[in-house]
Automatic annotation (TrEMBL):
CDD domains: biotinyl_domain. It holds the Pfam family Biotin_lipoyl. InterPro entries: Biotin_BS (IPR001882), Biotin_Carboxyl_Carrier/Decarb (IPR050709), Biotin_lipoyl (IPR000089), Single_hybrid_motif (IPR011053). It comes from the Bacteria. This is Acetyl-CoA carboxylase biotin carboxyl carrier protein subunit.
């Protein structure tokens, strides 16, 4: 199991995956808005989305878990 975490605090503007989706290493899974910039968050490993812990519009903290992969 692997977790995709937020590298910095910000607002979630787009969650690109849902539970059950297969993702490959490098695929964008979430877009954060931080410091007035869009920051794409990519999967560091391939896997299947087990849990999505954020929604569009959520504010997340740095190091917060966004996606759990199986």
């Amino acid at each position: 199991m692997s977790e995709i975490i937020a590298p910095m605090g910000g607002k979630v503007i787009d969650v690109k995956v849902k539970v059950g989706d297969a993702v490959n290493e490098g695929d964008e899974v979430v877009i954060l808005e931080a410091m007035k910039m869009e920051l794409p968050i990519a999967a560091e490993v391939s896997g299947t989305v087990k849990e999505v812990k954020c929604n569009n519009g959520d504010t997340v903290e740095a190091e917060g878990v966004l996606i759990v992969l199986d």
